[in-house]
Design brief:
The complex is a heterodimer. Chain A is 30% helix and 22% strand. In chain A, strand 9 and strand 10 form a beta hairpin. In chain A, helix 6 runs antiparallel to helix 8. In chain B, 79% of the residues lie in helices and 0% in strands. The longest helix of chain B is centred in the middle third of the chain and has 36 residues. Chain B is flat, with a radius of gyration of 24 Å. In chain B, 40% of the residues are buried. Classes of the chains: A alpha+beta, B mainly alpha. Chains A and B meet through helix 1, helix 4 and helix 10 of A and helix 2, helix 3, helix 5, helix 7 and helix 10 of B.
Chain lengths: 511, 309
């Protein structure tokens, strides 16, 4: 027995020595690059195909687009300025003041713009962005810097659709595959994508490298930030982890208001929910301020409409539905429900733990006014399939990155029932349809904005959904990071100005 | 022995074919449309239809199954619906990570389990036994999603010795391997203890002792080899599980293995990736089991003889 114990002790000592020697040689996590933690890995670096949020945000850094948006979501010139020639055509003039060099050194021209949009419009290429530019009849290159877009039908908001990154005409062949490399003219250039979870790009101006590191688990992402394995992360953390980071001296946490809109959707064909009093009771039973205070963060704003108040067509002066449980109970009573005959509803959400927490609190708040809510959570694909098919009574979802008010046709017009549109609650209101039509055909921007505001007031009154909030954005970074500004829609454009103390700028800076 | 290997290989082909068919059909029965997952909420009907056509998803299930098998026979596992990267490339990136994590975890579990199990068996009912089995119970009771972050907190944050996550050098493998190996070591040490106790009560052990063999000799030369058969079976099964991907551990440590790829493919309804992953996992299981059987036959002559007769 003693001899055996001696054998084992020797073995353990040996392992301990090997481990100690090895650990002494381990690298420290110090890096010159800015390491950006992501909750979801980018899927494609090809702007003609990328649809996920991470890919789209990174592609904005690698590629330039014709049109961008200001903080009020008004279309503004990016690569090009434009003017409307006729109701059916727009002329875009590429700007000389913008750096327009692709990574291969070739200058971006009107030919590249035409090639990019022709590729997207070609049905056989199956670009997911084809629908957004389907109104283009044909594109004509006027000269090296000028290009005309001819439309199938008049659309004063057309420039807002030209937001796809321009790829070089010579790399347009799909077989050449831009999905895992890049050929852009943006502020950053592609360096390497060594693994699905690790992408490296470099700022052209000063060769500052940005490493996108995918860490799915929120707790581990925070631990990596604390240990210095990542320098900055943005959004996608539960509230308690944000609080925890705020208490760390080595970490800075910044918040700002966002525009991503969350709502509680109703199935308007459901017998119980066709009654406006029931929908109003639900709206009055939800305490959005408490939810925001305890779960979502101080910069989250209560929403009363799909477009945020900052939007050029947003509504600002409306109180919406205030939390009033006694009014909710009275409305339910008037609608024929009581403790003896309670209203029972099914509420569907995704299996994301944070979404389930929100749903559980809403379930409890509705329970307090006498509505029995059965909570059902599914993986995203199943949930989304159910919502599209109209198999729900209540659900919560968010609209992310909405910039153009033509979303109203897609979501609320009676002709937009799935699968043609996203009117999942099968809402039909003739007055709403007319207002959408009027707003879309209005030439004068102020008149158009007025129609959209009127439409949103009407929707708030008719309540096909309960507007919940515009979720805030936040970032957490170590003290070496400075200059990062968050965008209203949560994009990563702040990386264009980010600085890291340990980064040494090269002598030969490239402008 | 050759006959055993040939018969196992034949059954492997049948099992893999059956699994491939079943997985294909099950995946297509699961609710959720891959086109919706790809295009998001803003896409229009025409986009969905054209993409569905481009991906061949508008064909009947039977036609898709035939295309799938035709491609499979030509060594083509398809292309990811989302990233448009060939599935073979995705697997090639993940397989080495999975294999190295599985083997190191297995090694760690053996290094923990054998001393623990042997010490417990040789000191049955005493303090050593109770301590060893207490440790083993603790190991099997702590879930990986808790042990992983605790290890990160201690060894990465407080002590600063090891990276938090990722696959970047050997040091990044230590914590995930310990996390995975701990639970396996707990089960394995209990198995070693119980089989060793059973063997130690056999007549031939008493005979060996009567012949004057030392305690260590009896344990190492007589008891352990005879106790190895069930342990090898367990190790084989566990290796199959580890090679199939350890989803929780891979997620906690951002380890780019097969398990994480499979779960991501399920969530995104990425049919080609999911089919390839499940096929790979089933082949791994079958092959590991086959190797276990062969080792079993090699260790125990009675099985070889039984197989020949």
């Amino acid at each position: 027995m003693k001899a055996l114990a001696k054998h084992l002790t020797r073995l353990n000592y040996g392992l301990l020595i090997i481990a100690s020697l090895y650990l002494a040689a381990c690298d420290s996590p110090v890096s010159d690059a800015v390491r950006f933690g992501l909750a979801s890995a980018p899927i494609s670096l090809d702007p003609r195909f990328a649809t996920d949020a991470a890919s789209s945000r990174i592609n904005r850094l690698l590629y330039q687009r014709l049109v961008d948006f200001d903080e009020q979501f008004r279309p503004i010139p990016a690569l090009a300025e434009w003017r409307q020639l006729t109701p059916f055509s727009f002329r875009f003039q590429l700007r000389d003041s913008v750096q327009r060099l692709f990574e291969n050194g070739k200058k971006l021209s009107a030919v590249d713009v035409k090639a990019t949009y022709d590729f997207i419009l070609d049905k056989k290429n199956a670009s997911p962005h084809r629908g957004s530019v389907a109104n283009i009849d044909h594109i004509q290159v006027v000269d090296e810097n000028t290009i005309d877009f001819r439309l199938k039908k008049p659309d004063p908001l057309f420039p807002a659709h030209l937001v796809i990154g321009i790829v070089p005409a010579m790399g347009i062949d799909k077989e050449q595959g831009l999905n895992n490399r890049s050929m852009g003219s943006g502020a950053f250039r592609f360096v390497a994508w060594p693994s699905n979870d690790h992408l490296i790009i470099e700022r052209r101006r000063d060769k500052l490298r940005i490493e996108f590191i995918h860490v799915q688990d929120a707790t581990v992402r925070v631990l990596k930030l604390l240990r210095g394995e990542i320098d900055i992360l943005q959004n996608d953390l539960p509230r308690e982890l944000v609080h925890y980071l705020e208490r760390q001296n080595a970490i800075q946490v910044k918040h700002r208001a966002g525009s991503n809109f969350s709502y509680l959707g109703f199935n308007m064909k459901d017998p119980a929910l066709t009654d406006i009093r029931v929908r109003q009771a639900i709206a009055h039973a939800i305490d959005r301020h408490s939810l925001i205070r305890y779960l979502l963060g101080g910069k989250t704003q209560v929403a009363n409409a799909l477009l945020s108040p900052e939007h050029w067509a947003g509504i600002t002066h409306t109180s919406g539905y205030v939390f009033n449980p006694s009014l909710a109970r009275r409305l339910l009573f008037e609608a024929g429900y009581s403790d003896k005959k309670p209203l029972v509803l099914e509420y569907k959400t995704t299996n994301d733990p944070f979404r389930i927490r929100i749903a559980t609190i809403i379930q409890q708040q509705l329970g307090e006014v006498g509505i029995k809510v059965k909570l059902l959570s599914f993986d995203w694909a199943t949930f989304y399939g159910d919502i599209k098919a109209g198999r729900f009574q209540l659900y919560t979802l968010s609209w992310v990155g909405i910039k153009s008010p033509d979303i109203f046709r897609y979501v609320f017009h009676s002709e937009s029932l799935p699968p043609q549109g996203a009117n999942r609650g099968q809402y039909a209101n003739e007055e709403v349809d007319q207002l959408i039509d009027k707003a879309e055909s209005a030439i004068d921007p102020q008149r158009r904005a007025a129609y959209y505001r009127q439409l949103q007031q009407l929707l708030l009154q008719d309540l096909p959904f309960v507007p919940l909030w515009y979720e805030e954005h936040f970032y957490a970074a170590n003290r070496e990071i400075s200059g990062y500004q968050m965008a209203l829609d949560g994009n990563y454009d702040g990386l264009k100005a980010i600085m890291k103390t340990s980064h040494q700028q090269p002598a030969n800076q490239i402008e | 022995m050759l006959k055993i290997i040939v018969s196992r290989l034949l059954s492997t082909v049948i099992v893999v074919f059956g699994v491939a068919c079943l997985v294909f059909l099950l995946i297509h029965l699961v609710p959720g449309d891959p086109v919706d997952m790809m295009l998001g909420e803003n896409a229009q009907m025409a986009d969905r239809e054209s993409l569905r056509e481009a991906l061949g998803l508008n064909q009947s299930i039977g036609a898709q199954l035939l295309t799938y098998f035709n491609n499979l026979l030509h060594g083509d596992l398809g292309t990811s619906l989302h990233s448009r990267v060939p599935v073979v490339e995705m697997l090639a990136e993940r397989i080495p990570a999975t294999i190295e994590l599985a083997l190191v975890s297995l090694l760690i579990s053996c290094l923990i389990a054998f001393p623990l199990g042997i010490v417990a068996a040789l000191n049955k009912g005493k303090g050593w036994d109770r301590t060893a089995m207490g440790v083993s119970l603790l190991g099997v009771s702590i879930p990986n999603f808790l042990l992983g972050p605790v290890l990160i907190l201690v060894f990465s944050i407080y002590l600063g010795w090891l990276p938090v996550s990722g696959r970047n050098g050997i040091d990044s493998m230590i914590l995930p391997a310990i996390t995975l190996g701990t639970a396996l070591a707990a089960v394995l040490s209990r198995m070693i203890r119980s089989t060793l106790l059973e063997v130690l009560s056999e007549d031939y052990i008493r005979t060996a002792r009567a012949k004057g063999s030392s305690h260590v000799q009896v344990v190492i030369h007589h008891a352990l080899p005879n106790a190895m058969l069930p342990i090898i079976t367990l190790l084989g099964l566990q290796l199959g599980v580890l090679l199939g991907g350890a989803v929780i551990t891979e997620t906690v440590f951002s380890w780019p293995g097969i398990g994480k790829l499979t779960i991501d493919a399920i969530m995104k309804r990425d049919y080609p990736v999911l089919q390839a992953c499940v096929l790979l996992i089933s082949i791994t299981y079958v092959v590991v089991n086959m190797i276990t059987d062969i080792v079993y036959a090699w260790i125990d002559p009675r099985i070889r003889i039984g197989g020949q007769s």
